Amino acid sequence: MAKEKKYKVKRKKMTGGDFAFHIGAYFIFGLILIICAYPFYYLMICTISDNRMVDLGQIRLLPSGIHFDNYVKVMKVQNLTNSFRISVLRTVIGTGLSLIVTSYMAYFFTKEEMWARKFWYRLVVVTMYFSAGMIPAYLNNRMLGLNNTFWIYIVPSLISVYNMILVKTSIESMPPDLEESAYLDGAGFFTRFVRIVLPLQKPILATVGLFSAVGHWNDFFTTQLYVTNPRLYTLQFQLYELLNQIRAASEQITTEDPYAKLTPTGIRLTLTAVVVIPIMLVYPFIQKYYVKGVMIGAVKG
Fold first, then answer.
1. Domain check: are 62 and 80 in the same one?
2. pTM of the model
3. Total count of domains within the chain
4. 173 in a structural domain
5. Across all residues in the chain, what is the average pLDDT?
6. Which of 14, 83, 140, 295 lies in the 20 to 30 Å Cα band around 286?
7. Long-range Cβ contacts of 240-249 (<8 Å, 24+ apart)
């Protein structure tokens, strides 16, 4: 039995120029990382620091007078917990349904059998650049009975043309033999879509899912325009309202510790942290798919 040959990969010896380039690159990227990360770090340390010192601008690199009363008291602001629940439900349901509808639509636009495919595709793409406007959209949603209901957050955002194009481009980069073999075995469009296409589109689906989730989580204008029921307010809109009425919000919150008493600045920073932290926790789970998904969707193979 022949012995397997072992091949050793020889590393190229690094020259002085290569070493200097790597040092410079790490320095630049490290500097960019600090610039991007410091605002979030500063936000977090301010929310757990002495509110008087935060107001005076005395917090820079390390927290001082650490306490967590800000978070405890802010969560007692009227309707905030319900707004958080609405935002979570909107993000989860809206993102899930949007992924299903957008990917299904993208799949059919890759099929030449689709009647007037090029016409419908161009018609859909046109909507990326032109829209009827705010007033017709409002009247349309009202006639559909969506205004002042939870579904105003879901139905109008089911289709994202930009995301659909990304998914369509990714599907078109798949080897056609995969679907042809399933077709010869009797699989229909829906079966091929569920069993063949979707499992191979995880990177691009994770990417557009992240786009959709961030859009749902950060949106407050839909609530401002279509919703008057406080029970349907999202967390972002609640933050918007509280920031516009910051003095009234600070009067709602009381504490026995005068050093931990919330100030307008403390409310702003703590509410911002409450809004930012949940969506930031999503990124680590999607990051491994993100770059690959963008590249697949951006360039047709």
1. no
2. 0.73
3. 2
4. yes
5. 79
6. 83
7. 242/77, 242/267, 242/271, 243/268, 243/271, 249/77
